Structure prediction request, 239 residues.
Amino acid sequence: MSEQKRIPQHVAIIMDGNGRWAELRGKDRSEGHAAGIEPVRASLRAAVRNGVRYLTLYAFSTENWGRPAAEVDALMELFCQCVANEAPELIRQGVRVCMIGDRSRFSEKVRSALESIEKQTADGKVLTLILALNYSSRSEITRAVQQIARRVAAGELAPEAITEQTLSESLDTAPWPDPDLIVRTSGEQRLSNFLLWQASYAELWFPEVLWPDFTERDFDRALEEYARRDRRFGLVKDK
Ligand code: IPE
Ligand code: IPE
Ligand code: MG
Prediction:
């Protein structure tokens, strides 16, 4: 990769600020979530244009179930609508949609919508869009540890044979490389239970822009910021 234009292979975004965007306009929070769809399209276009291979979007955390029922319902409805409306454009762009998180808690309607988009886009080769839905990193790690413990209990795996790779391969994110860049909009500087294991060496960027106002240009800015970072992975920089 050339030093002038280092493109992250995998970008992950914590799409935050929908509620504040709506409140600033005297609107209902759910309108803020609806306004968060266009920035998803914009990010996808920018990611494809720049040659990013994996884009993970944090859309709903396990903690978000604790929000008012009307807001949760509006979000579920939005997921179903999006999945139905966006399929043709995703297929046209060569985007493959995958999911991380525990989908067992979703209603049958949401689950089948998600399965449908995964199936319809399964041949996408240009970019993999990974939706984090009912996702939290601690829950993901806990499920991974349970899976490893079952293999140990069944005599398939010796405890000493457990490596970092064993854990990585037991996470929902097993098929993909770790994120190179994590962006969180709205100025909040925290990870909120997102990709804690995978973020070990990710570059972090926290723009002030609220998610509904995020544009293709903002995505380009994130890549420009990334290109300026000096990733050392604990080593000494090459001369
Ligand atoms: C992020 O926006 C979207 C979800 C968490 C689903 P928020 O709804 O958290 O917006 P703020 O943080 O309240 O502004
Ligand atoms: C994180 O945002 C989850 C998503 C963006 C889906 P939150 O708004 O839920 O996180 P906190 O509550 O500010 O930490
Ligand atoms: Mg928030």
Remarks:
- The first helix runs from residue 18 to 24.
- Residues 14-16, 58-61, 64, 188, 190, 192 surround IPE (ligand 2) (CB under 6 Å).
- The CA atoms of residues 15 and 133 lie 12 Å apart.
- The mean pLDDT is 97.
